[in-house]
Every structure is written in C-alpha cells, then in structure tokens.
Amino acid sequence: MDAQGRGRAENIDPADQWVLNPDTGDYELRLDTSTPQSTVPGPRRPGSRAGSPRSRTRTEPAREPREAPDGPGVPGPRRRRGAPAEPPPGRRRSRTKPKKSTAKKVMIWTGGTMAFLLVATGTAGYLYYQHLNDNITSVSDDGAGTGGFSKDRAINILVIGTDKRSGKGNEGYGDSGSVGHADTNILLHVSKDRSNATALSIPRDMIVDIPDCPTTQDDGSKKNIGGTPHTRFNQSLGQEDRTPSCTMRTVTELTGIKIDHFMVADFNAVKTLSSAVGGVEVCLAKDIDDSKSHLKLSKGKHTIEGEQALAFVRTRHSVGFGSDLSRIELQQQFLSSLMRKLKSGDTLSSPKKMFKLAEAGTKALTVDSKIADIKKLTALGQEIGKVDTENLAFTTVPVVDNTDGATVLPNEPKAKPLFKMIRDDVSLTEVKKKEKAAVAARLKGKRSAASDVRVDIYNGGAEAGSAQATLSWLQNEEGVLKSSQLGNAGKTLKKTTLEYSPDQADQARKLADLMGLSASALKPGKSEKNDQGLPAMVLTLGEDFEEAGEPLTASAADAKDVEKSTADKTECAK
Q: What tens digit of pLDDT does each residue of 2-25 get?
C-alpha cells in the first residue's frame, strides 16, 4: 500500500480533530462522538476549579448525538472554528474568548513529546497514539544496524528517498515501473553531545561495491543476495529484491560508519511534509522552467509545498551542471529550510501543524522495525532536535568523474578524511573551537627530534601485520630509527595508546604529531626497557588503528577542502 493510503479515515483531517471550546478555552480531541471529549487545559476563569463542573457552563443543554461517518474513532460533522452557530433556545450567544495565555500553554505542550501529550489526554489520546502507530510501516534491518540509538552516544541515521512512483499523483514521474532504487541518500550523524550534526549526501550514481546482504522479504521469507562489485550506489535498494538493510550495509562498507537506523521516504513524503508546515521557503538565483521536473519559478524567494515542492527537489537539468550533484544542492537547500520551519515558533505553537506533521511523518516514512513505535520515534526526534541549525552542516561525498561520463567515483584523498571525521565525531562547523583549543594546549611543549624518539610497538587489536607496517613506516618515512615491534600485546584495546615516563614527554609529543594521536591517547606512566636495555615508550595499536601513515584522529582541518553549508543560512540555487 502506498504512503497516502495507510491509516487514514476517509476525508478526515486528524489535525482538525483538536477543537477549541470557546466556553472553556480548552482544546478537545474529538475522536468519537459517543464518548466524552478529552481536553488540553486552557486558562481557568476566576472562581473555577480544574476538573470541576464550574469549569463548564452548567446551563448548557444536553447535545443531540450526531451521526458519525463509517469507521471507529472518526469524528462526526462539526462547526469549523470561527463559523457562526445558533445559540440554544433561551440562551444568549456566548461571548467568552480564551485568554492570550492559551497560546503559551499550547506551545508548552506541543514543544514536549508527542507520546507524553497523547498519554496525558487520556483515553482519546491513547486512541490517537494507536492510530499513529498503525500508520507506521516498518521492515527489518536484518542485523545491519547497531540495534538501536542511545542517548549517551552519537547517532547515525540513514535517510533514503526512493524513486518508486506509488501513491496518488505520482504515476507520471519518470520510470513508472521502478522497483524503488536508492535515489536520494543522506547519512545524518548527530554528535554525542548533541552540539552539532552532519548530513552527508551520497550520490546515487557513485560507483561502489555492494556487499552480500541477508534480507527479509515482504512475505517474511529470508533471502541471501550476493554482492555486486563496481556498480551504481542506487542499485543497493530494489534491484534483485534488495531491502533497505542492503543500503545500510553498502554505506558502512563505503564509510566505515555503523548505522543505528534507517528511514525510507517516497515522493509523497516531500509533498505531505512540506504542506503540513504550511510551505517551505526556497531561493533561486535565476528563473527556472524545467520541462523534466515541471518546475517553473522566477528568480528570487518562493514558498513551495505539495507538487511544487516535489518538482523542486527533483530538478537537475536547469541548475548547476545539470547533473545529480546539482540536484543534491537543491535538496540540501530544501531540507535546510524545512529544518528551520520545523524548529520555528510558528510551527511549534500550532496544534494544527503539529498534528498534521504527526500524520504526514508516520504515513510517508518506512522505518526499521527497531523504531517502529511513536514513542521511540519521538525520543529520536527529541535527540536530533537538540542541534541548532547553525551547527547542522550539509555536505556531499567528494567525487571525481568516471571515464564513462555518466557515473562518478569517490575522491579517495578527500573522502577518506571526511568519513573519518564523522566516525570520530568531529564537527564540520566551528562549534568545538574550545574543545580543540584545550586539546592543543595539552599537546603544547617541546618536541624531540624524530631520531631521538625511542618506542616499542605492540599490536593490541589492529589487523595482523599492523605493528610491522607501522615500524617500517616510522623508520623509512619518518626517521624514527630507535623503534622496535614486539608482536601482540597482552590484551586487546579499543583505542590506540602511547604510554611514557615523565622524562619522555618531548618524545611522546613528537610521536603524537607524526601519527596523528589525540591527547587522550597519551598516557603518562612508565616506560619499559627495550632490547638494548634503554627506556622506551610503549605504543599499543588498538582496534581503531587503520593504516600506517594514516592519522588516528581526525580534525576539522582534514575537511578544509570539503564543500559544505549550514542549515541556518539561505542559499540561492544557481
């Protein structure tokens, strides 16, 4: 079933089911006219008690039951807010208006978790909670993920946009018979301290190796799909019955980054989410009239939603070089603007928009089964929402043109440091200046000459042969001739460490410079006697060690040539 059809009662807008009662100033969730309404408290009138009969007008006569449409939990016809209504016989028309403080109360509860709100509203809220859960479609991650995000570590989410043409109004876009390839791909990394995030776009036409994939098919059967070397990235989904878990494995194979969860969006996600927030502002540096995407907009700023928003993110022939990379820039601009709109007071203070977002989000996304619950999705959203837009950086995997003229290849010298930065939780923004300054301060001081550095090297969890490779590199490339490798360490370490005695601090700083060791890797302590009976530092290569000559710790300087933008700024597409 397509995203538009999941869990929706015919012609009912769930956002409109929250109704402001003008007599009480309360918002009432009208899910079933046969049961009392659940309310979100508004301002109290003087002399009334919360929950008491005085909080409602006692002279109001019993209402006649209204005929409800077919289907459980669907509200019957009601007067729209602001429309005139005839007062009951013998009663004057009410002139009571909610106090201004209502807006503040609304903002408080909409700014909290959706799950808490729904539980707090009682039975009616629980029914709506179940309704949202029923909207969610999920599939297995087949063991490709970490098992679930955690609040005490960094979070990595893979967002996949498919080119599947399912859903109302999408039949005319591109290849109507597409099985749903990985057309738009963004790896969202949220830092451990939630101070920053990086959204890494992965070009669909980039040549990669797709690994073997154990999958769970739609009918519940298990299928092992063999890997495909040297093929387009978008083939990691849909082709040969590959599921999103295959795309997860492909990203991990490419970047070395283990992913917590995935979310898959179809064309309807762009249309419904942009409409739910009342439109997304975009900017063009020139007029665009694209016959392929059907986007026609003049130069300047525009607020777009629905079909027009979809046309915007699909446009590539009329911007930049007309490639998929140019389209990625448009998508990043759109997502930056959407993030700003989502975090704006205009959205957070509007119950209608918040509930439209809940409906649109739960219907338009397919998620992995480990977060297929509104409470878990809300908790994940809260963690992501802690990042300020100025510290949300958008970038793209650096690439070079392939010889076929139609595909691209990863630019290894630029891509590898970028991947390492994300793995090491290093920000692309300036948010961690103080932290970097503190690390630099700890490594300040004199350095010995390379020829004076004396070190014994052990393998404590790195790949076999790493200690010997490091010894050869230090001696032949860096001039550290007083070095030895002594095989395996007595224990396995997660992180590479360098232990040294206080009088070897100058040597330790020099070796740290050569190997790209962080301050946390330096362990003041004791040295050991080498085979000549002289004191030597102890370098133990941990599981984080990758390759001799490759810095163990990434820094922002590693990405100085990587193009990026931040979500707080508006950039006009050229």
A: 443 444 444 555 555 555 555 555
* Cα Rg, the chain, nearest whole Å: 29
H-helix segments, 170-231: none
Strands (DSSP E) contained in 365-438 are 365-368, 392-396, 399-401, 408-410
**How far is residue 452's CA from residue 441's CA, in Å, rounded to a whole number?**
23
Phi, psi of 269, rounded to the nearest 5 degrees: -60, -45
User: Tell me, what's the pLDDT at 436?
Assistant: 52
Report the distance separating Cα 56 and Cα 48, nearest Å: 9
> What is the DSSP track for 553-565?
S--GGGGTTS-EE
Please tell me what DSSP assigns to residue 117: H
List the chain residues with pLDDT less than 50.
1-10, 27, 33-122, 438-439, 441-442
CA 187/CA 317 separation, integer angstroms:
25
What single-letter DSSP state applies at residue 481? -
pLDDT reported for residue 80: 45
Contact between 489 and 497 under an 8 Å Cβ cutoff? The reply is: no
E-assigned strand segments in 387-508: 392-396, 399-401, 408-410, 454-459, 482-488, 497-500
Residue 475 DSSP symbol: H
Q: Are the C-beta atoms of 227 and 211 separated by less than 8 Å?
A: yes
Q: DSSP readout, 299-330?
A: SEEEEE-HHHHHHHHH--TTSTTSSHHHHHHH
Query: For residue 115, what is the enclosing H or E element?
Result: helix 114-120
pTM, entire model: 0.70
Sign of CA dihedral 29, 30, 31, 36: positive
SS3 357: helix
